[in-house]
Specification:
This protein is α+β, with helices and mostly antiparallel strands. 39% of the residues lie in helices and 24% in strands. Strand 5 and strand 6 form a beta hairpin.
């Protein structure tokens, strides 16, 4: 029974660690801001992480960013990862932030590997009634 408790603790720690790892850093620092997905034709004012401010109308929205057609007609591509905040174009008040970028292939592979490992250990525990994972934490007597 002690081995099962240890196995459950290891699985819980793995799940907690993977959920912290899977959360983008930008999401960790901007939880208090509302996430707003820019829409085609919407007037926006965007503050970038380097301090620049881009104001205009949203053009095409892509998975990694969106086009902003500035008032002088110049289109600018704004990447989601460079956005610090979205402002109200009239008042300049902060209204939110944009969604983060999709997970990278590396992050997806890591999460899939963790899920397969947990499923394998759980499957072995079920099939062998706890004997196989138990051997990882204590000496096998059989």
């Amino acid at each position: 029974m002690n081995a099962i408790c240890r196995m459950v603790a290891v699985v819980a720690i793995t799940i907690i660690a993977s959920s912290v790892y899977a959360q983008p850093q930008s999401a960790q620092h901007t939880k208090q801001l509302r996430r707003i997905t820019p829409r085609d034709g919407q007037r926006v004012s965007v503050v970038l992480k380097d301090g620049q401010r881009v104001t205009g109308t949203v053009g095409t929205v892509f998975s990694r960013g969106f086009d902003v057609h500035q008032l002088n007609g110049t289109p600018v591509f704004v990447q989601y990862r460079t956005v610090a905040a979205l402002l109200d174009p009239d008042t300049g008040a902060v209204v939110g932030t944009v969604p983060g970028e999709p997970m990278s292939r590396r992050e997806k592979r890591t999460l899939i590997t963790i899920a397969i490992t947990i499923a394998t250990v759980a499957g072995l525990a079920i099939v062998t009634h706890g004997a196989i994972p138990g051997c990882l934490f204590q000496r096998c007597l059989m």
